């Protein structure tokens, strides 16, 4: 059963850190758009790019070129701000994942507090989905947050896998994996579609890939790290193998 589910699971490759390398020198290379093309050729099922308010990696130019060149599906991660909603409505990615964002953080630190801002998020979800752009909410595996996500009428959630990734021992890891499994089951029963991501690596991805009903894993840092040594095509192929328990 586990192998069957992991075969059906798709991989969204997050290319933000290709842009991070480029922005370190404020130059033109490496180009995240070129990385996306190579990732798709290697078997990526989708491309994810986070347009942050401070533009620390992905730039507006990147997003627009990605929309023109991505042949699988383009997932735009962004904060639920008026600026980002306007950009999404203009660019029209295949779907939008709404994430929390703090200027001082290195990377996204946790899930959205959907329960604490249902009205605002419902308005954003309605605006995007009315325009034909499905919305996913990046949330922690918490019953209250899943229930709140249902109320916004978003089509997807993306479960934050950080606690599972950061677990210090096998017992803690098993506990967090069970929570992810329970959250996935709860969300699907409520009519949500479920993705997951954050901190997943070649060495910890398979148990998450085995969760029944999970549709897509969005993975970036570990793939780009490996790509710096072996190339992005091999790095993507090996992640697909890891998701199937074949690495």
Tags for this model:
49% helix, single chain, alpha/beta, globular, 12 helices, 8-stranded parallel beta barrel, TIM Barrel, 247 residues
Explain this structure to me?
- The chain is an alpha/beta fold and 247 residues long.
- It has a single domain (2-243), classed as TIM Barrel.
- 49% of the residues lie in helices and 16% in strands.
- The chain is built from twelve helices and eight strands.
- The chain has helices at 2-8, 16-25, 32-41, 60-69, 82-91, 118-130, 143-152, 162-166, 170-189, 205-209, 221-230, 232-243; strands at residues 10-14, 46-50, 74-78, 95-98, 135-139, 156-160, 193-197, 214-219.
- It has an eight-stranded parallel β-barrel with strand order 1-2-3-4-5-6-7-8, surrounded by nine helices.
- Helix 3 (32-41) runs parallel beside helix 4 (60-69), helix 6 crosses helix 7 and helix 11 packs across helix 12.
- The longest helix is centred in the C-terminal third of the chain and has 20 residues, at 170-189.
- The radius of gyration is 17 Å and the shape is globular.
- The model has no long low-confidence stretch (mean pLDDT 94).
């Amino acid at each position: 059963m586990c192998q069957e589910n992991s075969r059906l699971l798709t991989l969204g490759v997050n290319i933000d850190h290709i842009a991070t390398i480029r922005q370190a020198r404020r130059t033109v290379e490496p180009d995240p758009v070129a990385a996306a093309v190579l990732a798709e050729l290697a078997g990526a099922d989708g491309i994810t790019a986070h347009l942050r308010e401070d533009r620390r990696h992905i730039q507006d130019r990147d997003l627009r070129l990605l929309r023109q060149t991505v042949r699988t599906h383009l997932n735009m991660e962004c904060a639920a701000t008026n600026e980002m909603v306007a950009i999404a409505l203009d660019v029209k990615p295949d779907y939008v994942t709404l994430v929390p964002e703090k200027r001082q953080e290195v990377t996204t630190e946790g899930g959205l507090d959907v329960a604490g801002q249902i009205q605002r998020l419902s308005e954003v979800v309605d605006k995007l989905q009315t325009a034909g752009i499905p919305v996913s909410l990046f949330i922690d595996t918490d019953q209250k947050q899943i229930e709140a996500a249902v109320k916004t009428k978003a089509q997807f959630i993306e479960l934050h896998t950080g606690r599972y990734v950061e677990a210090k021992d096998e017992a803690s890891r098993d506990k967090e994996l069970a929570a992810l499994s329970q959250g996935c089951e709860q969300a699907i029963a409520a009519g949500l579609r479920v993705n997951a991501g954050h901190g997943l690596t070649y060495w910890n991805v398979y148990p998450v890939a085995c969760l029944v009903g999970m549709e897509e894993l969005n993975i970036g840092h570990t793939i780009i790290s490996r790509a710096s040594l072996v190339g992005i095509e091999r790095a993507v192929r090996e992640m697909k193998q890891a998701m199937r328990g074949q690495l």
